[in-house]
């Protein structure tokens, strides 16, 4: 954690399903709602966001239908950039200065990913949105969330989930005996194969002692609460 400036700095991961409202493409009502919740925290907390793209394309799925995996992954990454631009628009409508930084160069719509500049933006109360994943096929935006959080020295990764409000002992949609956990260690999650994020991402968080909060999008003001550091969802630690 970077204590310079003394402010809390968070890395929020928003998956594609958050943007699509469960469908293909971008659902403006949902994105506006999320943007307004983020806007409510500006000035109090420094916020960077990693955006997923599953509402457009997932490389692994496209490759199963016969596409070359790397090319399909690039399509996936380009999808994340569309989500970034939608989020940027609604954040700016809510009065928040934002910058999109892309891992694939596309100067007309986004800055390049420059970590020190991202930190500077946050210090100036700008929300930074990271798009195009890592710019590398075979990676996921979960892994990118862990990597970006480490590189910009965020205090915590906040994993916003749709349809579930934290980590459970089993899948709550299938197992009525599933119990929600308030706390969990990375070792327990890895050992019990609890997939809160992919294994690469979890290992990266574990090895670098980066805490994660898994929380549900649905509750009123939950995104705001998570950013402000309220106890919510499940905390995953070393
Ligand atoms: N992707 C990639 N490299 C990255 C990040 C993403 O190749 O660094 C591709 C991959 O095909 C992935 C897609 O982009 O399926 C969308 O990202 P992801 O599935 O992580 O989005 P989410 O599940 O969060 O919506």
Automatic annotation (TrEMBL):
It catalyses: UMP + ATP = UDP + ADP. Pathway: Pyrimidine metabolism; CTP biosynthesis via de novo pathway; UDP from UMP (UMPK route): step 1/1. One of its GO terms (biological process) is UDP biosynthetic process. InterPro entries: AceGlu_kinase-like_sf (IPR036393), Asp/Glu/Uridylate_kinase (IPR001048), Uridylate_kinase (IPR011817), Uridylate_kinase_bac (IPR015963). GO terms for molecular function: ATP binding; UMP kinase activity. Gene3D superfamilies: Acetylglutamate kinase-like. Its EC number is 2.7.4.22. UMP binds at residues 53, 73, 134-141. It is an enzyme of class 2 (transferase). Homohexamer. PANTHER family: URIDYLATE KINASE (PTHR42833), URIDYLATE KINASE PUMPKIN, CHLOROPLASTIC (PTHR42833:SF4). Catalyzes the reversible phosphorylation of UMP to UDP. This is Uridylate kinase. It comes from Zafaria cholistanensis. The gene is pyrH.
């Amino acid at each position: 954690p970077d204590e310079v400036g003394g402010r809390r700095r968070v890395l929020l991961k928003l998956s594609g399903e958050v943007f699509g409202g469960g469908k293909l493409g971008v659902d403006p009502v949902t994105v506006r709602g999320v943007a307004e919740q983020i806007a409510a925290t500006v000035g109090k907390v420094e916020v960077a966001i990693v955006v997923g793209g599953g509402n457009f394309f997932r490389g692994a799925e496209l490759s199963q239908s016969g596409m070359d995996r790397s090319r399909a992954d690039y399509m996936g990454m380009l999808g994340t950039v569309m989500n970034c631009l939608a989020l940027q628009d609604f954040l700016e409508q809510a009065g928040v200065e934002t910058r999109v930084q892309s891992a694939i160069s596309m100067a007309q719509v986004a800055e390049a990913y420059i970590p020190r500049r991202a930190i500077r933006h946050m210090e100036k109360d700008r929300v930074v949105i990271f798009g195009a994943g890592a710019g590398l096929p075979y990676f996921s935006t979960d892994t990118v969330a862990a990597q970006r959080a480490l590189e910009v020295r965020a205090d915590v990764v906040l994993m916003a989930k749709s349809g579930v409000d934290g980590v459970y002992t089993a899948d709550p949609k299938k197992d009525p005996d599933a119990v929600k956990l308030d706390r969990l260690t990375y070792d327990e999650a890895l050992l019990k194969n609890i997939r809160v994020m992919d294994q690469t991402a979890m290992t990266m968080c574990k090895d670098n002692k980066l805490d994660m909060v898994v929380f549900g999008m649905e509750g009123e003001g939950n995104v705001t609460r998570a950013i402000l550091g309220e106890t919510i969802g499940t905390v995953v630690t070393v």
